[in-house]
Every structure is written in structure tokens, then in C-alpha cells.
16.9 kDa class I heat shock protein 1 (Oryza sativa subsp. japonica), 150 residues
Amino acid sequence: MSLVRRSNVFDPFSLDLWDPFDSVFRSVVPATSDNDTAAFANARIDWKETPESHVFKADLPGVKKEEVKVEVEEGNVLVISGQRSKEKEDKNDKWHRVERSSGQFMRRFRLPENAKVDQVKAGLENGVLTVTVPKAEVKKPEVKAIEISG
């Protein structure tokens, strides 16, 4: 059993790692024409909470800021969406491998009550989208001392 296989024996660039579950997966899940978009459609996003804010980071290499939308809907749902277009193809081009994904993506996150949704900021730098949602200061309950008579 070989760990490396060729998609096309005549193409020296077609080496793939062998996947023992590949044939099982293909028999259960039918192939679609959107296989190249599957990875991008489920954009991975990190969400961390700091004492001051909620910070979301998404790796979006090759995506321009005009192709990304950051919105707050229903009062407290952060929506990050966008699209990476396919590269223009020339009929004379011969592709040896297509691994970069393209297509649309959308992710939704329900923000906690302490999120200041009117102060959300977003920036795209070096292919990383960073969305910062400031948190409202937690008011400590006021303690009122009661004098005890007697």
C-alpha cells in the first residue's frame, strides 16, 4: 500500500497524499461542483474575550476589503460575510493543481449583552480580518450600608 498516489500518471505535479477514507467518503457524500469552494465557505474564525472587548480574527488571504461585509443585525448578532472570486481563466491555460478555494462565506455570532454594538471596529491587514467589539463596563452593584438601631 502506497502513501502517495498520482491523480494523473502523466502529470508530475499531481502527487497527493494517500487518504484511506477517501473512497469511503466519496461513496457516502456525492461529489458536487463546488468542491473547490468548500474550504472557503466555512471560513475559520477565532473569537477571544479580553477584559475590554471581544476580538474576532479571520484569515482571508487574497480577499479585498471591498469583498468583505461586517454587520450587526437583530441588535446583537455579528455577521461576517464575503466572497473570494475565482481567478480569470484563459482558454490556453493548463492547470496542474487547484488548491486555493473561492466562493462565498458567512458566519454569525450572537454577542453577549455587554457588547457595545454601536462601537464595533473592523480592519483587514495582511489577509487577516480583525473585528473588535468593545465591552460595556461592568457596574458593580452599589452597596448601601444600613444603620442598625438599638
